[in-house]
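Quick one - first record:
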Amino acid sequence: MLERVFPLVYGLELKDVLTHEDLAVGSYRFAISRLIPRMTRVALRTHTKELMRETPNFARKKFLYRLSRSGYEKEWGKDYVKPGVGTRILSTLLRYIPKVGPFKGLAFNNPTAKTEDLYIKSINTTVDQYRGFLQQVRADTLLLPNFDLDSGQPTKGNEYSLTDNAYAKLLAQVAGGKFEHTSAELRENILAFYSDLTVPIETKKNPGNWQSLLTELDQLKSMTPVTRAAQ
């Protein structure tokens, strides 16, 4: 499904972005289904008393997602990247290194009671909302606005340098592929992102890259979008 929908959304083949597709997807599944829940259990074991004291209605079972290694590998396979020896040694060293100077950013500060309460409520709200979305998918009524998840507004140039770089790279890749899979929606989205070229977009810091981007934008404006339905 991901392979079929990727060209429709991004105008690129999935293999153009993920060189080792199975390994990338497997590692993502491992992080979501195994690594993050394991870290959550450690945090809960450490702070359960404080959480119960600060949030009397704290629902531990609702907060945890349990999946055994055998259950995971039976469902999803064994094709994922596990933390290696080097990673484990580094994590141990970082645990004991004094959090001063360049390592100051590694220091952990306990969140306030209010912050913890907001976090727990946000997790439960997210799960409930996601279940609601799944019901809408089954009823074919799901409509998701194309908004920036940080600001709640349409994404535009000069909001974040990483977004500027991502759009520049996307435009370069679809232009390099002669816009073979570029749909009308993707063309519209890219042109909307670059609707105001007077703002200090990150790409402008490199005159050569900016000139290439302007050329690619002109090509995008003159191209004929493809009509292609999802399979």
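second record:
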Amino acid sequence: MENELTALSTIFTEFYYWVTVVLMFLIHVGFCMYEVGVSRHKNQMHTLMKNTMVIPLVTITWFFFGWWIYWALPNGPWIGTSILSGTSGLEIEGAYGAALAAPWASSMAVNLGDHIYGVFWAAFLLFSWTAASIVSGAVIERIRMSAFGILAIAIGSVFWVIDASWGWHFDGWMLKILGYHDAYASGVIHAVAGGFALGILVVLGPRIGKFAQDGTPRNIGPKNPWLVTIGLFLIYTGFWGFYAACNVPIFEVGAEYGMEGVTYFTATNIYMTPTTLSGITFNFLMSLSGGLLAGYWVSKGDAFWTYSLGLAGIICASAGNDLYHPLQAMLIAMVGAYIAYKLHYWVENKFKIDDAVGAVAVHGYAGVAGLIICGFVLWGYPSSAYSVGEMWNGSNYAPINPLGMFLGAIVMFGVLGFLPGYVLAKILNGMGKLRIPHEVELAGMDYNVMEAAKADEDAFVAAEK
């Protein structure tokens, strides 16, 4: 490193992303506890192991191709030259390039000169785990482990990564052409995973006993409210890391923003637009509070939905929480929580969709609502600070606008979410590999585990005799 100040800045950035990874790990712990708490006792080990296996499956595939996709496809359907772009070193403010993200690149080996790349890679990996875990909750108690593994890889290392490359990359085509803005991933992670889960549920079908013969839905409530409560509070806690990981902690703005001769360092969001941790802390807490209040009111005090809709509130406000006033964040969160709750039960009654934990509602419907609301509230704001300067050959980005955000919501929830989820589920179902057999579902997905434990106990007792 050139000097002590450069070293301090670099090591701080490395430590900053490392802390976000540790905090986001709590999101996955929370999902495990939350889903096990909702599952019936006969399915709890299967639910736990399904979510646990997200870690190795998505991590390994993310290493081999998921990370590469993010840097390879920002130009979207008209790929252009982006696939072959690359740089010889790592610079936060520059394009890493697909070549640098390939699994055989020197950056993917033990490298004492790397102080940022690995932890930044890990932060995005934890986003991938989140996308897969959102799907996991919706499909509990009836999906085969092998089928879920395939679907987890698809959403965790392919489809959410494509939408991130299109709408979260600072050079993404959706920013430039549509004016898409999604600073903390209302659409990029949550809407796409919610749509993907809905596509699977359409094919997978409801749990046995969820609907009466006349189609009336039965409530299959949480079996362990304490696990649900602690799990969701851990997800809230992990979201602090999630928000921070969506920022760049130190970035020099000046000439790149059309301010020649000006040197100014600040934190930015993922689009390199100046922001602060202080500002998003206001908005995070206000959106959580708005979601909890609206959730308590609309669900008439139901604990499960109160906690879940607190999360929906955060997700709804996340698209614009880098620019909202705290009161806007609170009100938008309340609207998102209301929409998520009402749509969940309307879809359940109308289409007989069994979303076991409300994942499609909390992540998908709230995420879509957040994108559309952002288009109106931030209408005219720059989608990225790069639109102010003369970067990228002087091509200006479209400003944030309702139509662009609506089209972006369709891309996220429908094109990259629902459609691939539905198609993959159809293929797996056609092969007889999607859903567990009827008799196994009745006995419980932990039946073999319990039988093995009983056999061990019987053998021990016999040996004692």
